Amino acid sequence: MKRRQFVTGMAAAGVAGCSQDSMECADGAVASRETFEWNLVTSWPPGLPGLGIGVENLADRIEKASNGRLKIKVFAGGELVPALEVLDAVSNGTVQMGHDSAYYHRGKAPAAQYFTTIPFGQTVHEINAWLYYGGGLELWRELYAEKFNVIPFPAGNTGVQMAGWFNKEINSVEDLQGLKMRIPGVGGEVMQRAGASQITVPASEIFTALQTGAIDAAEWVGPYNDIALGLHKAARYYYYPGWHEMGPMLQCTVNHDAWNSLPADLQEIVANVCQAINTDMMAEYTWGNAVALEQIKADPNVELKQLPDDVLRLLKKLSKEVIEEMAANDEWSARIKASFDDFQRIVIPHHEISELAYLKARQL
Ligand code: CA
Fold first, then answer.
1. CA-CA distances (angstroms) from residue 333 to 100, 101, 105, 147, 177?
2. HSE value, Cβ hemisphere, 13 Å, CA-based, for 130
3. Listing from the earlier edge strand, what are the strands of the sheet with 180-182?
4. CB–CB of 191/175 below 8 Å?
């Protein structure tokens, strides 16, 4: 009997045919009874819709699918380790698992940003396809094995984000001059080149920074998460689209040694549940964002606006410059960019006559 059939059969029929201690069965297949208790740290505020709930689901599903053999305790950002040091904690073995964003770690690995998002990059469909079918995941794992001793899994996506909350109207490229904006990653570097000041503020402090005028603008995620932080009460103008984060991937990371300690069937469960969460989180955001947008549109103190085309054109031009400089200065970025660009060259023409053409047709 093949291992997969054995595991399935065992779940359905108990441990028939297996000895008490090792669950060694008549055909010689062995299922370990060893149990594992792991800690998982995240970058997210406790109970945050989408990101936070997704990780709770991940832990529950793994525990259920493994029949309690792998229990995972989830910690919100700052509870066990600082919110932006999740990957370090997984890397050095302080914890076994983490959930955060690759681009938080661009200081140590600039190329990691490709595995969250780069400005004017991939939609959720494109990044999933690149990672699972276009060689992206192999590159990601190779980079992380070399830099961090961890194994990354795609584990959630927010879909197209918003450009952010602004307390100043943006009518032209001149309006970006001197704008103090919270915006991380390559997007922040691009805004800086457009004349704005990039400010780093953790999620939990965005509301106060905007409300007190310490910053003029901030991007976080989209309606679902932004309402949860109360950002609609701290700024008037809500701009779209999220040119800087159009399909950002979340990562689940597992310490390499912890991974190797798991029997093969538990490894399979972790991998499959990560993939399930990847789909599930996107579905939660699609619905949650739509419902929250209704609420925002009904709020007389908020104006929903699209960034002007000339602003988007400038941001696109500057994004290309920043991304090319990254590739010129970092071997890993050059290698990953080549894979990313090759993939996009093939995928974009199809998406123009499928996703894009349909969305336009739907508006006729
Ligand atoms: Ca964001």
1. 20, 17, 13, 13, 29
2. 30
3. 197-199, 180-182, 217-218, 164-166, 237-240, 303-306
4. no
How many A from CA of 231 to the centre of ligand 1? 13
- d(CA 122, ligand 1 centre) in Å: 14
Distance 221 CA to ligand 1 centre (A): 4
pTM of the full predicted structure? 0.89
Distance from first CA to last CA of the chain, Å, rounded?
Answer: 56
CB 136 within 8 A of CB 339: yes
On the 0-12 / 13-18 / 19+ scale of CB atoms within 10 A, 328 is exposed
Per the listing, tokens 């199809």 go with: 350
Task: Write down how long the chain is.
Answer: 364
> What whole-number distance in Å separates Cα of residue 115 and Cα of residue 120?
14
Q: Look-up: residue for tokens 């929903």?
A: 304
Among residues 233, 219, 200, 226, the alpha carbon closest in space to that of 51 is found at 226
- 308 CA distance to ligand 1 middle (Å): 20
Token pair, residue 108, equals 């140590």
CATH numeric code, 34-159+248-287: 3.40.190.170
- Decide: helix, strand or coil at residue 165: strand
| Token output for 123 | 């939609």
In the chain, where are the structural domains located? 34-159+248-287
Which amino acid is present at 41?
A: V
pLDDT digits (tens, 9 = 90+) for 11-57: 433 344 444 445 554 444 556 789 999 999 999 988 888 999 999 99
Q: Mind listing the pLDDT tens digit for each residue in 306-345? A: 999 999 999 999 999 999 999 999 999 999 999 999 999 9
Here the tokens at position 57 are 């689901």
